[in-house]
Structure formats: structure tokens, C-alpha cells
Amino acid sequence: MTFLVFASTTVDLLLLGAVLLISFASDLLTERFRFPDVLWLIALGFLAGPLFHLIPPGPILTLAPLVGTAALVIILYDAGLDMNARLVRPFAGSAVLFALSGWAIAFGLLFGVSLWLFAPGRSTCRSSSRSPWPVPRAPSSFPSRAGSSRSPGCGPTSTWTGRSRIRYRSSG
Q1: Residue 49 included in any domain
Q2: What value does the CA radius of gyration of the chain take, rounded to a whole number of Å?
Q3: What Cα–Cα distance (Å) separates residue 10 from each residue in 14, 21, 35, 148?
Q4: Residues 6 or more apart whose Cβ sits within 8 Å of residue 145
Q5: At what angle do helices 9-33 and 37-46 cross, to 10 degrees?
Q6: Using CA atoms, how far apart are residues 40 and 26, in angstroms rounded to an integer?
């Protein structure tokens, strides 16, 4: 176990033996109390790591993404082996329909909103009267920097990309 930074090889072997012993004990507790063994192991990992600091977090954190992915693959593989195809088959059609309908609704809503917001010919200029958002207008007596009453970036080929840089004087 060269990826863990411990004092010696004997400590590594003792820790490996302790982990194996705890996992077998967890399996016995699962059979006795009908409680998932993953929960026992998570609780023991919490006790050994963050609570009592028996295991240094540095080397573990570098391997966490790899170990997490491998654990997920093993859990899903085990669940697939335990699944009874005869019990799942009557619900397969409705499950696929449910998953696809959720995807289709989300896609349709996002496509419709993006088409409405970014349609060709739709002006996103701040001074446009077709803007979907309420926009405060500048008083006609306070023209912009360029000397015209238009907001910056509202030419025939440009679109409004963010906050206006004009600061109007307060009346009062």
C-alpha cells in the first residue's frame, strides 16, 4: 500500500487487516440486524477519519474520486446482479416513458425560452420598447456620452450585453 503515507509496512498491513476484519464484522451485523452493511462501514469510516483522526486525510483525498467511482460501479453491478428481470419487465415501458417525458419537457421548455429570448430580429438593446424586462429610461434632458439619447451599444448591428455604463444624475 504505497499510496498511503504511514510509518512502516507493518502499520499498513495491520490497517489492511483491521479493515478486512471490520468489513467481515459488518457483514455479520447485517445478517443479524437486517441493516445495510454500507451504513455500518460509513459510520466506522467517519469514526476513524474525521472524528478520531486515526487516518490522515491527505493521501485519502487524492484517491477519493477514483475510489468513489469504483465504489459506484461495484454497487451498480451488484444491484444489477440482484435484480429480478421478471419483476422489472412489466414496469420497463412506463419507466422509459417517464424518463423520456421528463427529458422532453425540460428540452421543450429550454428550447422555447431560448427561442423567445434569442430569436433572430429580436432586439436585446436596453432602449428597445420590445424588451421583456422593465427598463428605466433616461430623461431626455440627460443625453448619453455620445451626445445622442440612445443607450451605448444599441446600434443597428450590436446588442446589449450587460449593464449600462451610463450614470444619470438624480433629480432633486
Answers
A1: yes
A2: 31
A3: 6, 16, 33, 81
A4: 152, 166
A5: 140
A6: 6
- What totals of helices (H) and strands (E) does the chain contain, helices first? 4, 0
Tell me how far apart the alpha carbons of residues 17 and 38 are, in angstroms, rounded to a whole number: 18
Q: What angle do CA 143, 147, 148 make, to 5 degrees?
A: 70
- Residue range 68-89, pLDDT digits in tens: 899 899 999 998 898 888 998 9
What pTM did the predictor assign?
0.37
Cβ-contact 159, 127 below 8 angstroms: no
Ordered DSSP codes for 59-102: HHHHHHHHHHHHHHHHHHHHHHHH--HHHHHHHHHHHHHHHHHH
The top-scoring range by mean pLDDT among 56-70, 75-89, 156-170 is 75-89
Which comes out higher in pLDDT, residue 52 or 6? 52
Q: What letter represents residue 124's amino acid?
A: T
Task: Identify the domain containing residue 45 by its residue range.
Answer: 9-59
In a domain, 167, yes or no: no
CB within 8 A of 128, min separation 6: which ones? 154
156 falls within a domain:
no
